Every structure is written in C-alpha cells, then in structure tokens.
Please model this.
Amino acid sequence: MIIGIDIGSSTTKTVSVEGGKLARKIKTRAADAVTSATGALGKLLLENNIGISAIQGIAITGAGASRIKNDIFGIPTRRIDEIEAIGTGGIFLAETWGGVKPGRDSIIIANVGTGTAIIEAGKDGITHLGGSGVGGGTIQGLAKKLLPTSDFNSILELAEKGDLDQVDLLLKDITETDISFLNRETTAANFGKMMDSAGSADMALGILNMVYQVIGMLAVFAARSKNLDRVIVTGNGSNNPIGKQVLKIITGMYGVRFEYPPDAEYTTAIGAAFSWGV
Model:
C-alpha cells in the first residue's frame, strides 16, 4: 500500500493506493504541515483498521510538503513535485473515468485550489502551462471584507439568491446589440456596475462569477493553444456548483468542455501516490 498526502494551504487530502487502484480517501484540516500530515495519516489508519506495517511508502506533495524533512513514523517518505502530482493524478482520473487513452491522448487540467494551476498532461509528459493567483483563496479573502461570512458553504448559499445585474457591468448596459458571439447578458466588467442596492447575495454571486470566469478563460486559452477541446477540473474548486454553472456558460461560447471526474478534489494526493515508483 502507498499513501499519498497532499498538504495544502487550507486542507490536507490523503489517499491509499493498492494494486494500482484508489482504495481510500480522507480530508483533514490542521494548523501546520506536520500536524496535517501525521493527523491525516493517523485518521486514515485508525478509521480503516490498517496497521503501519501495511504501508510500503508515503508520498507527500503540496505547499506544506517542504516542511517535512524526515520520514513519517519511520515509513519511507518521498516528496513529489506538486505539478508532477497534479498531472499524474489527472491522467489517472481521465483514463479511468473519461476515456483518455494512456500514452496517446493529452489533457488540460485546471487545478482549482487556493490559486489555480493549468497543466498539460499526456503523451508528451507533464507541462506546467501557467496559472493564476485567482482561486478559492480569492473567494474567501474578498468575502471577509464584502460579505458577513467567509465560510464557503455560506457564500454558496448567499450566491444562490444573488443577481449579477446588481454588481457586474453587462453588455446590455453598454450596447443594444450582441457583439461577435457574445450575447447581451455577457459580463463586460466584473463588479463594473456595483449598484447601491447590491446586497450580500449579489456580491457573493459576483465574487464566484469573477473567479470562475478567470479560471475558465485561462483554461480555454490553454486548451485552444494545444488544439484540445476538453479541460479536466480538479482540486477543491471542482465541487463548486455555481462555478460549474459559470464554466458551462463558457463552454457554450467557446466549445471547450469542462469535465469533473469523481474524486477530482483528491487529484494531487492520488498523483503523489502513483508517482511513488517514478
């Protein structure tokens, strides 16, 4: 059994891989990297009645991995490059769920965490194409100042009642006709209107819309540059229902599909585990 641990800035994900298959997965939160890694491993072992002797190795990755200098609990521990882990995990999920052929196809991965990384993975290896500091951290940071809450679930509940027309400048505000393939409901400027009547729900929706429009367009540019028409969305941000709605609209405009494999939020931990033998 190989354990993969993705020590993120806010959440740590841990998976176990056995016989080339994903076996177990958990998420934890802790204040520092060592506590996150050891606590996550301990939780996985205790909840599944697994002995330490069953673990062949531990692969760690993510923002906090560099802070762990030694083996965890005496088990051989390797640090895996985060981009390599995202690409490897994305390929695994795309192959098992999305019909990607090993060694033949390439995919674009948009890994949405605190920020966003855009990666190409497949027949020619794994390449970090770029990314953005816009991601879940942006949502939470703006919410602290603009909303009565910075809890993600509460932000989503607010946004479901929001009206973008209260905060975003739309094309219909500045033109009486469509422009190119853009209809008059398309955003011309995020937060470019900001009515005095805008409430917390409107601002919550505006924040989510802005973040996922940025992520979506970066992914579209990356996919088009590689002559691809699909993007695998991974990381914590792959579970955001309003974000998915925003990306669906972008698909309608640009023809690039956004896909969400099961267990996508565990992609980096999965990739770390499968990179153990590399």
User: Anything to note?
Assistant: The CA atoms of residues 20 and 84 lie 18 Å apart.
